[in-house]
Amino acid sequence: MRTDLAASYGEERLPRYTSYPTAPHFSPQIGAGTYSRWLSELPPGASASLYLHVPFCREMCWYCGCHTQIVRRDELVASYQRTLLSEIAQVADTIGRRINVEHIHFGGGTPTIMAPEAFAEMMAAMRRAFFVLPSAEIAVEIDPRTLTSEMVEAIRRSGVNRASLGVQSFDPVVQRAINRVQSYEQTASVVDRLRQAGIGGINFDLIYGLPHQTIASCLDTVRRSLELEPDRFSVFGYAHVPDFKKHQRMIDEIHLPDGLARHDQACAIANALKEAGYVQIGLDHFARPDDAMAVAYAQGTLRRNFQGYTTDQSEVLLGFGASAIGHLPQGYVQNEVQIGAYQQSIAEGRLATAKGYELTDDDRLRADIIERIMCEFGADLGDICARHGTEPGTMLQSASRLKSLISDGVVRLEGHRLAVANDSRFLVRSVAAAFDAHLDSGRQLHSRAV
After folding, report:
1. Are residues 106 and 75 in the same domain?
2. With 15 labelled, which of 29, 332, 371, 433 sits at a CA distance of 20 to 30 A?
């Protein structure tokens, strides 16, 4: 991998492109009325995925970029769970029929902060409101420090078959610097209990670019993680945006690695995982060769949504909870971010949509191009443009940023087939950004390209 390119492009702040256009471009002109209409217009054969956001944790990790808050009183969590149940019923009633569901993802925050019986009640409510297919993937994000045996049993009985464990780093110096002290033994115990419960899909989340991190500490975390044999890894670069996430001010910026050091850490982690037999998937995922995600990558059917890379083929994502984002054929919707405002809307019988974005034909074209670049490190512009009824030459002329990427050897363009060079794949976000017509506004909210 080329360090000269890391120096040239690495400090640029760019989206992760889990959607296009990205969330900073959502507008309050899209509200509850629009969402209600879009739901009622879903075609008869539509299937959906569900995302449920549980915005509570027992303590704040200082690196966190999620919409969450610290809670000590279980009644606040219980009250929120009751609101989620009401929102599920409202959305299902608005759709007017029991549509198929292929994926369910509990995110946060810490979804397993709910009481075990409340989690089971939530899953039962979703099965009543929607037809959850027997083959559906049901995933939950887990903080290994707080998972109880009772919750393991509840998620087992509820049909959960994939768990994503936050690991980040096993280096105790790094852990103290980010206020997340989590021993290897805690993590290993949770993995063992999940597998004993029959939950076979295990994902680990790692982060590079944290304070005090070094290549050596990153590699030690990878080595110890590999001992636990997870099916997938997600490896993210820490996004330091203290103006947007004020708790990140607790992290001393003097101890953060610079762009080149972040690049070296990312490369070291990627190389170690590939040497261990994992397939690198897109920007930041790694999976065993027989894993469904690796198979989708090999077959060219990998997708990208707000949870990152996914095997989910649904064109409908229904988001539940404060700040949750949904995606429908017509566009994007996002719920009220503040928990109080979200709960008030639902209590008054209104959908909690606070803002969104209605897609244009140009947005759909660019979204398809960007998704293929992010998933496959390339795109057949001729094929994609033909499906959208436009000329690839017109699209290339509008991508002025592409010229420097081609001249720097980051991108090859053969006819209308675009490919990211193998030694430049870490800059895939920079390539995707060349087709982003909305890039210039909202840039300050994004993380560094490397």
Report:
1. yes
2. 29
